[in-house]
Amino acid sequence: MSDRLPPLTALRAFDAAARHMSFAKAAEELSVTPAALSFQIKSLEEHLGAPLFRRLNRAVELTAAGKTLAAGTEQSFEGLRLAWRNVTRAQEENTLTVTAGPAFTAKWLAPRLFHFVQAHPEIELRFSATLRIMDFDRDDVDVAIRFGMGGRNDDGLYSKPIIQDWVTPMMHPVLAERYPDPESLAHAPLLDQEDTRFLKPALDWPAWFRAAGLTASPEISAHFNQADHAIDAAAAGGGVILGRVSLSERDLLEERLVMPFPLALTTEAHYRFVCPHGTETRPQVAAFLAWLEAEAQSLLSYREGREFISAADVSV
Length: 316
What we know:
- With 316 residues, the chain is of the alpha/beta class.
- It is built from 11 helices and 11 strands.
- It has helices at 8-20, 23-30, 34-48, 64-91, 102-109, 113-119, 173-178, 205-211, 227-235, 245-253, 283-296, and strands at residues 53-55, 60-62, 95-100, 124-129, 143-148, 157-170, 190-193, 220-224, 240-244, 263-276, 307-310.
């Protein structure tokens, strides 16, 4: 049998039909008529000398030959799509797509974005705010800012820590007058943030109470699954948060929040800059990393006068 490949358009039609198991849906994906797609598949079957689909009343199914071919075409076309995506992204020297969590994007990145724009007007930034771990090959992103311990999600990637975070009680100045010492927090409206629940050991109110030597159990008034929502509630005087300084910096600067107690909990979790190995040297990626590191220096001043206790030392 000849190794000469059939026309690529016919293979593409077959790949779409095999993935959808529908000629109509495949034709819609390829922007052709069902008759044109059926003709392409028929020509492929004639080239092979065997049927690839069984035509049923209102459906199709793959023959044994079709299943064998489908396994190869799906992998091959996906490889072509990835290769094309990577080569086109490499040509886009003036764009940079960044993914980060919604809270970090809203509270840390967005308020200082104009600094980067002023320094690099030639680079067009695009943001994708999501908690999903995005795939660099399939999701059209260049850089990710991730929070946590790292681990296998960073395997095979360039990863560099940019912010070592910590938490401490934060509240509106009016509430700070009402709750002047750690003991008084046993009677304060405490706000819980569920976005750090995945951390082990936990960064939560029970851990902070143990670190402060308090025997009372914290009474939670409200739970938030997004840190920025909890910060906004606290800044409006709605309660006390165990806030991350990186996400709360703008509210601290504008005195909507204060940190009245020196005790802070630390963890090995951190914000890190992640990108595919080798792309960290691309001009726009290197410029963004350098900017992030420079901006993160402003957080160091908040460490002065703090008493840091590791969450691991007070875990139960």
